[in-house]
Write a structure and sequence with these properties.
homodimer, mainly alpha, Annexin V, domain 1, 4 domains
């Protein structure tokens, strides 16, 4: 369930564009007005506002926003204005520049459904004139390449059927390899990168039943290497995107100084999808509402924008 | 260009089904009549005939054919009767049983376009309730796994744009690795499995220009291992499916005793697509027509069936 709140009736795209222009005019920007419009429109409506704004004023709304607002607020608004698939495509491409940000690639490949990933890959090709696979492979090496290329390449089986004896056998393979600390073994990569999400969840459940501890806990007590951390991220995204995001929020808000990038990413990417579920999980685990935590840790227009997106 | 010849006007599916039943009745089967119908109908028409036959006689046409005809003719007819995509799906699955027939997997992944491969993968999932990727990964190991999983997984870029300096750089990487005989190097797998076909063709052209010999010739003089043979097969399928098939036909017809499996596979799979081009290439290289070679090497109803499919 989404947290995004859209007024009924919603103003026309032309009205919204005109009101945005009013907010930009005069002494300073009326950030409150900007938030009251853009934080309460869905992706389609935002797209229509951008088109209407461009037609009315012959300028690009995103560029205008960049010149009107700044800091964390600007960066969050910039992300928010993209079409959700385009946003994933662009941030995957950014993640592959310089030192590869593997978290973005793992989230993209393990949280999206096989068909959503396919749509992202098609748009990636249209935009960059090469495949996501070749870009990931080109910018990585060694174990990370094996893992990341495997994760983005496979068109996983989409069905819910599972093979229970296979789950048991593969849970045993994973346990033995973790025990031997051969995390980069071809079999780890094969299982994680090719099995369906339903089958992997069955395997991870078998692992927990037989070993009395979860595979992610086994991994974290076996090693603190970056590669193992990547394996754990992939597994957590496959088991439950909502729990994964909830934990990311707790960490982002719990650093004595927020992790702006993660906080923005989770809220922007999930506000139109399942942020309500993530909020409820957060409240249980953190013993406070997400609204309260954001109010406490964030500030200024950035805070107001995030609070609007999380349904405050 | 296809070699399949369809009469105009084509009889209705019901007439065809009735004439097939007539051919099955009486003393022995009238194979000539069976060939005159089924070797001159396209995939859609064959499907309609199967439906009409089932409705009229409450029996499966393919099963009836299996009981009426035998040997090479039966095996070729069995393959022919499938829908072309279903045929690739079923034979990929067969190729993964017991000792993996890597040639079928390489042809499937390197000859089909990225979008055709995707359709095959979707049908594979619907039919077998798992992904082609996980089946290939499960049944292979070591270098073959790396290569075959890479080839079936990637959704290659479909565009024709190439990056000339990248082609030069990657041709050099490939040359150095072949010189060092490290054919299983991650970079060989990366380049071959992730780059677009257009980009790979540019890379192979650079290789030839700089080294004065083709990459496939370099590979075959460097090693005769099965893995290098698989690399060469993939490269040849990417460079030119038609030339690849033409050579396969020459080998299949040149063994002093035909290679029935390859001969049938090429003719059945290409008769509705590009067998005319392959035939013309064959005539140039073998100094005889494909019709003549098939007449000389094959026999009986099998020969008649193949000759009908190649447009004799």
């Amino acid at each position: 369930m989404a947290t995004l709140k859209i007024p009924h009736p919603v103003p026309s795209a032309v009205e919204d564009a005109e009101n945005l222009m009013k907010a930009f005019h005069g002494w300073g920007t009326d950030e409150k007005a900007v938030i009251s419009i853009l934080a309460h429109r869905d992706a389609d409506q935002r797209k229509q506002i951008m088109v209407a704004y461009e037609e009315l004023y012959k300028e690009n709304l995103i560029k205008r926003l960049e010149s009107e607002i700044s800091g964390h607020f600007e960066r969050a608004m910039y992300r928010w204005m993209f079409d959700p698939i385009e946003r994933e495509v662009i941030f995957a491409n950014v993640a592959l520049k310089k030192s590869v940000d593997w978290i973005v690639i793992i989230e993209l490949s393990c949280i999206n459904s096989p068909d959503e990933l396919l749509v992202i890959k098609k748009m990636y090709q249209n935009r960059y004139k090469l495949s996501l696979e070749e870009d990931v492979a080109f910018h990585t090496s060694g174990d990370f390449r094996k893992l990341l290329v495997g994760l983005v390449s496979t068109y996983r089986y989409r069905g819910e059927e599972i093979n229970a004896s296979l789950a048991q056998a593969e849970a045993k393979i994973l346990h033995n390899l973790i025990k031997q600390k051969t995390f980069d073994h071809d079999e780890v990569i094969r299982i994680l990168c090719t099995r369906s999400k339903a089958q992997l969840n069955a395997t991870f459940n078998c692992y927990k039943d037989e070993q009395g501890t979860s595979i992610t806990k086994s991994l974290s007590s076996a090693s603190s290497s970056e590669f193992v951390s990547a394996l754990r991220t992939a597994i957590r995204c496959i088991i439950s995107p909502e729990k994964y995001y909830e934990k990311l929020l707790r960490r982002a808000l719990n650093k004595g100084g927020i992790d702006e990038d993660s906080l923005t990413r989770v809220i922007i990417m999930r506000a139109e999808k399942d942020l309500q579920v993530i909020k409820e999980l957060y409240q249980k685990r953190a013993n406070m509402t997400l609204d309260h935590a954001v109010s406490k840790e964030a500030s200024g227009d950035y805070k107001k924008f995030l609070l609007a997106l999380i349904g405050n």
